Amino acid sequence: MLSEELIKPTLTVSGLWLSYPDRPDVVQDVSLKVMPGERVGLIGPNGAGKTTFFLGLCGVLKPSAGEIVVLGKPVLNGHFRPEVALVFQNPDDQLFCPSVWDDVAFGPQNMGLSKDEVEVRVKEALSVVGAVELADRPSHHLSEGEKRMVSIAGVLAMRPRLLIYDEPSANLDIRSRRRVIHLLQESKETLLIASHDLELILEVCNRVVLVDSGHIITDGDPCKIMSDDRLMEAHGQEKPHSLVPHRIPHHEL
Amino acid sequence: MLSEELIKPTLTVSGLWLSYPDRPDVVQDVSLKVMPGERVGLIGPNGAGKTTFFLGLCGVLKPSAGEIVVLGKPVLNGHFRPEVALVFQNPDDQLFCPSVWDDVAFGPQNMGLSKDEVEVRVKEALSVVGAVELADRPSHHLSEGEKRMVSIAGVLAMRPRLLIYDEPSANLDIRSRRRVIHLLQESKETLLIASHDLELILEVCNRVVLVDSGHIITDGDPCKIMSDDRLMEAHGQEKPHSLVPHRIPHHEL
Amino acid sequence: MHIPDGILPVPVTAAGYAATVVVTWYSVRKINQKENPRQDIPKASLLTAAFFVASWIHIPVPPTSVHLVLNGLLGAVLGYFAFPAILIGLFFQAVMFQHGGLTTLGVNAVIMGLPAIIAHYIFRIRRFGNQESRRKTGIFGFLSGAVAIGISVAMFVLILLTNIPADLDIGTERAALYTLAIAHLPLIAIEGVITLLLAVFLQRVRPRILDGV
Amino acid sequence: MKLGIVDEYSDLGSLLHRWEPRCKLIGLMVLIFAFSFVRDLRMLLAMVVVTITIYIISKLPVSFILRRLRYPSFFLLVVVLILPFVSGQTIVMSIGPLDLRQEGLIAVLLVVTRFLSILTIGLILFGTAPFLTTIKAMRALGLPAILADMVLLSLRYLHEIGSDLQKMQTSMSLRGYKKHCFSTRALNVAAWLGGSILVRSYERSEWVYKAMILRGYGYAPTTRGEFQTNSRDVITLGVFLLIAIGFITGDILYGRGVAALLQ
Ligand SMILES: Nc1ncnc2c1ncn2[C@@H]1O[C@H](COP(=O)(O)OP(=O)(O)OP(=O)(O)O)[C@@H](O)[C@H]1O
Ligand SMILES: Nc1ncnc2c1ncn2[C@@H]1O[C@H](COP(=O)(O)OP(=O)(O)OP(=O)(O)O)[C@@H](O)[C@H]1O
Ligand SMILES: [Mg+2]
Ligand SMILES: [Mg+2]
């Protein structure tokens, strides 16, 4: 009881509405509270508004209504908050420097850190994702899986407290996907993950939010939500294979 | 016995070697025979050479050695063979015309068909993929799933006999992926499908070829190969979830 | 730096169109002489679009910001495709953003396109002599960028001032000429430096692009 | 950075919408050039009347053109502010140290009116048919195949590459990059960003080329009779050509006065 009152939520979203100039109300009246250390999976069909919601959370899109508070401070449109970080769906959108080192150092340098501190952070971030030996290579020459790892390192180097992943396993082969899953499972930050890879969500997240057409449909325990066939199908999802016989006692059926 | 001798293979590859100018021997001494109506899944880690192999099959890459025969005629580098069609991993690369109708009509027009025939083919192809109402839309305004469907239509409009799919379910949400799976299951052409989505391969293919580092490792029954844990793990794969308890009698284990 | 509709007299715009037609015809002929002329079209088209998009990148120069022109690098990279590429870029500018104009399309293409062709030859000099080093790429990158934009600015200012539909006295004209030229000097320097940096970046990351289309 | 779409009202079905695209292209381009020929003030008035009439016939909403005047109006402002003070000898009025001159004022009137009229006709030309159709009409009128292919392909990928740039800039600002200060780093970053755009497009072009040849690019002659003209199209074209000739002869007949004034 006491601890719950003491611990402040990492993220509080209240009554958020987001629009694009030519497309109104992509996100409609969304409210969400995420506590420190939670790992929230966002699932929902194409065009549900997941990416838009994330852009709103980071202050890239200006909400038409509502408020976003991260770690006690409101997120203002256009203001940079190093404690919130977004990993893009396509790593190419994040990698543009001539070398991997430059790419990972980009964030820390913009934060105005000293040269030594930048170096420490880059090394640390690269070693977390297991890409130390790539440091001198041009980012444009990496394989898909390596690009993903480096783009994650570029964000980790800013030591964010809230880490948002958009489709972390897109375009990866099975080995690289497994590596990303391990990384996510081991990370200590509060996580928000949007993915169509429900098995990944199931392995990583301890809470799932199902969204469709800009609304939150339901929010709760991953196993419970994902094994609700009616609910999942109504919103273009499928019960993940691993849920069908493993966790539900199908032997009795 | 008789019928097997009478039916000619759709595709015969013998001793194929493929290289890039700056990267030799990406595909090494691959031989493969595919009979009409077979649905062959190609699985293997990133960089195994699946895409390269496909480009070789279509005559886009010139083999350094070996021969490819499709429907009794050898595939020559740079010659247009409408009976072999490749659906690219990224639909944006394939939808190069400004509107959907133009894109689907591109292949038939180049085959020298009459205007009416082109129209018939475009309508037919669009209706097979369920995208008739998209005909007048510009290609860049489509959703990811729609793009995939239109790029498949563009290839179907040439009425190919051998259809090659590179990662047909990449970047799709669950609903669109299910639609692609249905389409593949229903298609009458001989299919070659490369995918990291092993569940898709399992649902669609009746034969699986496992490749790694440019070699064919094994070739045979999907269930048998994919449930061989040792083999799969050695080549960066994972046994698909649906195989774990469904098809193998795990109750006895 | 595009001359809009309504300023230039018909003889000038017509001459611009005539020059554009001739240069385009020559470029197309050269392209068609290649072994497989279609092969480079997608490359040239996507790079045309990419250069167009790259010109939206703004560089802060307090109190304002300038946007990149990059006609030097475009010429260096696209060779015979450079003039058609610039013509297409200007056509899009005129139709989509009402920037530049339809009657002045020819004149503007000459202003931007001829320097691009010159830049192409300047950039090719780096191949002479011993091996192709990063420093040489940088130097000739700078030169092609700065020279191309320099010539463009000169042509722009000259054509504009000599054709304004009203007579200026010589003094005013000269003053305007100098003011405009000096105002563009920082732009020339920045274009040169950016072209240098871009050429070095491309050489490190994807040297094939610099080999031309 | 949103791409200016000009063909959003291409399905209104006015007389100009229904006009066969090749005839429309010729008719309106000739008219545009005739406009740029005009120097006489009376012809200028006629030009405004003709432009407005055609715009009304085209049924395009007024907001369509107003939205597109914002960007070019910066240039207009410069012309209006400078020319009347520096050009000509006849001083109409003195404002402090500045002299307002008659020739300059006439020149401004000329430039601004011609500019607006040509812009309007241009917008009508490209706003009353799908952009793609207009390009096809250009190809049918003899635009070289290489150029036509390049226009269509670069148009198609402009959107993709534009959104690549936008996403990259978003990811940069999310990692704290501020583009308000000038430094060598700012130059470097701009070059890296531009370079990455070029590299990504180059790589995509290799895939696009493969996709194109696999569907037979270059195997069949592409120009086919897509457009059909009926007599009404030709008559409309004739009317427009007559108007254009009218402007040119009118200006030659009357235009001496102004030309002499400007000498
Ligand atoms: N820049 C934009 N301008 C206008 N509309 C947009 C833009 N980006 C996205 N949209 C629209 O907003 C809606 C939500 O898109 P969003 O990308 O947030 O969906 P998503 O849930 O992330 O989908 P996906 O699973 O495909 O990534 C879609 O209908 C999309 O077409
Ligand atoms: N154009 C190219 N030039 C040089 N090397 C290339 C080129 N394309 C691919 N390669 C290399 O060839 C190898 C095989 O690549 P390929 O794309 O065929 O693999 P893949 O099995 O399709 O992988 P993925 O699962 O990622 O699609 C890789 O090591 C890759 O780096
Ligand atoms: Mg998304
Ligand atoms: Mg591949």
Describe this structure in words.
The complex is a heterotetramer, with 2 copies of chain A (253 residues), 1 copy of chain C (213 residues) and 1 copy of chain D (263 residues). Chain A has helices at 2-6, 50-57, 100-110, 115-128, 144-156, 174-186, 198-204, 222-226, 229-234; strands spanning 11-20, 23-34, 39-43, 65-70, 73-74, 84-87, 162-166, 190-194, 207-212, 215-220. Chain A is built from 9 helices and 10 strands. Chain C has 213 residues and is mostly helical. Chain C has one domain (10-210): Arp2/3 complex 21 kDa subunit ARPC3 (Orthogonal Bundle), CATH 1.10.1760. Helices cover 71% and strands 3% of the residues of chain D. A two-stranded antiparallel ribbon of chain D has the order 1-2. In chain D, helix 2 (21-37) runs antiparallel to helix 6 (102-127) and helix 2 (21-37) runs parallel beside helix 10 (231-254). Chains C and D meet through helix 1, helix 2, strand 1, helix 4 and helix 7 of C and helix 2, helix 5, helix 6, helix 8 and helix 9 of D. The structure holds adenosine-5'-triphosphate (2 copies) and magnesium ion (2 copies). One magnesium ion is lined by residues 50-51, 89, 166 of chain A.
Keywords:
heterotetramer; A: 253 residues; alpha/beta; four-stranded antiparallel β-sheet; 10 strands; C: 213 residues; mainly alpha; Arp2/3 complex 21 kDa subunit ARPC3; two-stranded antiparallel ribbon; 8 helices; 71% helix; globular; binds adenosine-5'-triphosphate
Summarize the structure.
The complex is a heterotetramer, with two copies of chain A (253 residues), one copy of chain C (213 residues) and one copy of chain D (263 residues). Helix content of chain A is 32%, strand content 24%.
Overall geometric form of chain C: globular
- The radius of gyration computed from the alpha-carbon positions of chain C, rounded to a whole number of angstroms, is 17 Å
Could you give a short account of the major beta sheet of chain D? 2 strands, antiparallel
> What is the overall number of helices of chain C?
8
Helix content of chain D: over 70%
Bound ligands, named by name, code or SMILES = adenosine-5'-triphosphate, magnesium ion
CATH class of chain C equals Mainly Alpha
The fraction of residues in strands of chain D falls at under 5%
What is the strand arrangement across the widest sheet of chain D? Answer: 1-2
Span from first to last CA of chain D? 44 Å
**SSE run of chain C:** HHEEHHHHHH
Number of strands of chain D: 2
The shape of chain D is flat
User: What is the domain tally of chain C?
Assistant: 1
Largest interface, by Cβ-Cβ below 8 angstroms: which chains and how many residues each? Answer: C-D, 76 and 85 residues
- By helix and strand content of chain D, what is the structural category? mainly alpha
Order of helices and strands of chain D: HHHHHEEHHHHHH
Mean pLDDT of chain D: 86
